[in-house]
# Entry
Amino acid sequence: MCEETHSHQHSGHRLVVEPQQSLLSNNDHLAAHIRKRLDNLGIRGINLMGSPGSGKTALLEALIDQYPHGNLAELAVLEGDLATSRDADRINNRGVKAQQITTGSACHLSASMVAEALIGVSLEGVKTLFIENVGNLVCPSKFALGTHKNVVAVSIPEGDDKPIKYPVMIRVADIVVLTKADLLPHFDFNVERCRQEIEQINHHAQVLVTSAKTGEGISELWQELQS
Ligand SMILES: Nc1nc2c(ncn2[C@@H]2O[C@H](COP(=O)(O)OP(=O)(O)OP(=O)(O)O)[C@@H](O)[C@H]2O)c(=O)[nH]1
Ligand SMILES: [Mg+2]
# Structure
C-alpha cells in the first residue's frame, strides 16, 4: 500500500484509503513547475507506469531501437525503482542517458524525486524525457510528475481483467499499451474485451498492442507519443 495515505470510513462499510490532500497539492505544485521547465525547453515528458515486470523497460529499449541511431541524444530516461540501478544500466547500454531514482520503500515516484534527479541530467538537445515509474498498478496514478502523457503498460501474462480491476490507473492513462503481444498464443487474453473494458473506464485512452520482442506496434507507439 502507498505509504503516504490515510484511511476513512464511507457508508459504514467500505474503507477508502487516499493519499493526504496536502501531500498531493504540494506534489501538484512542484509537478506544474517541472512541466513549465520541460515546456520552456521544448521537451515532451512521458510518465510510463505499470505493474512490476509488465515490460516497461523492455518497451523503452524497443522504442530506443526504433529511434534514428544518430539522434539518441534527443532521448533521456529517469528510472524509478525501489532498489538497484539495473534498469538505468539497461538504458545506458542502449546509448541513451539514464538516471536511476531509487525510492527505498516508496511505491511511486513523486515530483520532488523527479526534480532532484533532473539536476543530474543534461537536458540540452533532449526532445523526449521518459520517466519509468516504480512498478505498481495503483500508487503512481495519484502523483503527477509534470509530464505531458501518461502511458500505462499492461502485459498479456497479467491477464485481460487488470484494467477493470485497477481502474484508478487506467483513468489517468493517455495511452494503454498491451505489452508482450508475442505471448498471446500462450494466454487466454481477450484483446477486444480488454479494449472495451478500458474504453468503459476511460474513453479518451488510446489502446495499442505491442511486443518489445518482435517490434510489433512500436512505431505506432512512437506516433502516438509524438502526437
Ligand atoms: N516475450 C516477451 N517478454 C517480454 C517482453 N517485454 C518484456 N518481456 C520480459 O518481461 C520481463 C520483465 O520485463 P521488464 O522490461 O524488466 O519489465 P518492467 O516493467 O520494466 O519491470 P520493473 O521495472 O521491475 O517493474 C523480462 O523477463 C522481459 O524479458 C515482450 O514483449 N515479450
Ligand atoms: Mg523496469
